[in-house]
Every structure is written in structure tokens, then in C-alpha cells.
């Protein structure tokens, strides 16, 4: 993934785990180990999804499915 940021995470806090890294090792995504569907992204999936990036599209599909499940 590409990142538009000039800062990055060096380490993650309690109850978070790294789930994606860039090719240079920069942390791109963390998720909660304690809560359901809590993520932090270093990249901009909303911009890449419209350009056809499959990983970014899956982020939004998962978000929609989680929201629909929560609504039940």
C-alpha cells in the first residue's frame, strides 16, 4: 500500500496487533485484540478503493458486512 503520511507507528499499544506492513516495514494497519472490528489504517483505503485496489475494496466490504451484522 502507499501512504501519504510523513509519520508512522513505531510500536503499537495494549490490545492492538499489527496486521499489515508496507514493503519497507512501516506499519500500515493495526486491529484490536479486545474489541470487534476496530482497525487503524496508515493508508487511505477510501482513495485506493475507487482506483480499483482490491485490498482497499475488501476493507469497505468487511465494514459494510460488520455494520449490517451489528444492526441485526
**What gyration radius follows from the Cα positions, in whole Å?**
13 Å
Largest sheet: 3 strands, antiparallel
What count of domains describes the coordinates? 1
What strand order characterises the main sheet? Answer: 1-2-3
Low-confidence stretches: none
Please state the average pLDDT score: 84
Strand residues, percent: 15-25%
Note the overall shape.
flat
Query: Helix and strand succession?
Result: EEEHH
So how many helices? 2
Tell me the distance between the termini.
33 Å
Instruction: Report the helical percentage.
Output: 25-40%
Briefly note the structural class of the backbone: alpha+beta
Based on DSSP secondary structure assignment, what is the total number of beta strands? 3
Report on the structure:
It is built from two helices and three strands; from the N terminus they run βββαα. It has helices spanning 45-50, 54-71; strands at 16-21, 27-32, 39-41. It has a three-stranded antiparallel beta sheet with strand order 1-2-3, with no helix packed on it. The longest helix has 18 residues, at 54-71.
What's a concise summary of this model?
The chain has 72 residues and is an alpha+beta fold. The protein is built from two helices and three strands; from the N terminus they run βββαα.
Keywords, separated by commas or semicolons:
alpha+beta, 72 residues, three-stranded antiparallel β-sheet, flat
SSE map:
Blueprint: E1 16-21, E2 27-32, E3 39-41, H1 45-50, H2 54-71
Antiparallel strand pairs: 1-2, 2-3
Amino acid at each position: 500500500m502507499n501512504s501519504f503520511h510523513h509519520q508512522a507507528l513505531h510500536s503499537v499499544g495494549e490490545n492492538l496487533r499489527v496486521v499489515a506492513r508496507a514493503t519497507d516495514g512501516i506499519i500500515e494497519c493495526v486491529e484490536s485484540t479486545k474489541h470487534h472490528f476496530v482497525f487503524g489504517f496508515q493508508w487511505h483505503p477510501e482513495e485506493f478503493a475507487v482506483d480499483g485496489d482490491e485490498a482497499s475494496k475488501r476493507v469497505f466490504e468487511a465494514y459494510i458486512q460488520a455494520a449490517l451484522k451489528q444492526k441485526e
